[in-house]
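Replying to the earlier thread about multi-chain prediction with a worked example.

Input:
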Amino acid sequence: MSSSEEVARKLDALWQRFLPTILARLAAIEVAIESLETGRLDRERNRNASEEAHKLAGSLGIFGLASTSAMSSEIENLLSQPDLAESMAAELRKMFDSIKREIENR
Amino acid sequence: MGRHSKHILLIDDEDDIREVAAMSLETVAGWRVTCARSCAEGVKLAEDATPDAILLDVMMPDQDGPQTLRLLRQNAKTKSIPVLFLTAKVQPVERQRLKDIGASGTLAKPFDPMKLADEIAQTLGW
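Result:
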């Protein structure tokens, strides 16, 4: 087995192991988006969700989901804005759904 | 890769980042990796094990990467160990800031598990 095959095999095993952590991060982000969608802005929740998006970006990147990782960084940046408007909810939801799909399809 | 076996200390509070980085350095380069999840644990392990290099996360709760580096540099046993930061913020101004406080280099996070060992070796001239 070449080292790249071995790394890929071990990476798959680690992905399965850390999938619950990744899904928990995703859930924290969705809670913040839902709050925004229903007009219940919560800065503390957004800050926490932004931190989770930062961690999610790191996780997705090391598991080979580069573009999904970049999208998660974009969510991180949006959620960290103190003047985040409700009008951004649709864009956040679109990126969130795309990330979720990529995770499910990996 | 034509380099001798190395011992790397990895300090990062994220379990998945630690596990993937350790796996990649061990599998691709055959290096030995010791992991720590906090500044305090990392400084203690650096003192005890004197690794060839330290990979250090910038953003950590409690004491962050720059604070950890300061402690490593104040300690006679660890002050000469090369420290490479792992960070998502890889803009030139941030790289320079980390270099100014004593980092030997900055590696982008997320990293490619197949290339991480090469990036470390290249940065440190191994």
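The helical segments of chain A are 3-37, 43-62, 66-79, 89-105.

Feel free to reuse this layout for your own posts.
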